[in-house]
Design a protein that fits this description.
Oligomer: single chain
Strand order of the largest sheet: 1-2-5
Shape: elongated
Radius of gyration: 23 Å
GO cellular component, one term: cytosol
Strand content: 15-25%
InterPro entries: Hist_DNA-bd, Histone-like_DNA-bd_CS, IHF-like_DNA-bd_dom_sf
CATH architecture of the largest domain: Irregular
CATH superfamily of the largest domain: IHF-like DNA-binding proteins
Organism: Candidatus Williamhamiltonella sp
Number of strands: 5
CATH topology of the largest domain: HU Protein, Chain A
Subunit structure: Heterodimer of an alpha and a beta chain.
GO molecular function, one term: DNA binding
Length: about 110
């Protein structure tokens, strides 16, 4: 799903115009960005917490040339997923895993009995 599709979903579900939905989404993203610039965390209950974490300076190698290079310290945005979202994703993965693991086992058993 891209931003345009998300705006369409918001507009449809909220019963508002796409222009208003775009304004809502843009305002949300702008406010999250502004908070992160100030090193403030943004917590959306059940979804997750946006934070800024410092990353230390480190040495690395240029993959193209193999030359050593220094990567300066910087601040990196992170998202820690909330419990509700994690549980929702676990539920969908367990169903997917069950259907995947059942099919190959059945095929192996049929070929082994021949």
């Amino acid at each position: 799903m891209n931003k345009t599709e998300l705006i369409g979903e918001i507009a449809e579900n909220a019963g508002i115009t796409k222009a208003k939905a775009k304004l809502v989404l843009d305002t949300l993203l702008k406010r999250i960005t502004e908070s992160l610039k100030k090193h403030e965390s943004v917590q959306i209950m059940g979804f997750g917490t946006f934070k800024i974490k410092p990353r230390k300076a480190r040495n690395a190698r240029n993959p193209k040339t193999g030359q050593p290079m220094k990567i300066p310290a910087c601040d990196v945005p992170t998202l820690s997923f909330g419990k509700f979202l994690k549980n929702e994703l676990k539920g969908s993965q367990s169903v997917e895993k069950k259907t995947r693991s059942v099919a190959p086992v059945g095929k192996k058993q049929k070929t082994a009995t021949k």
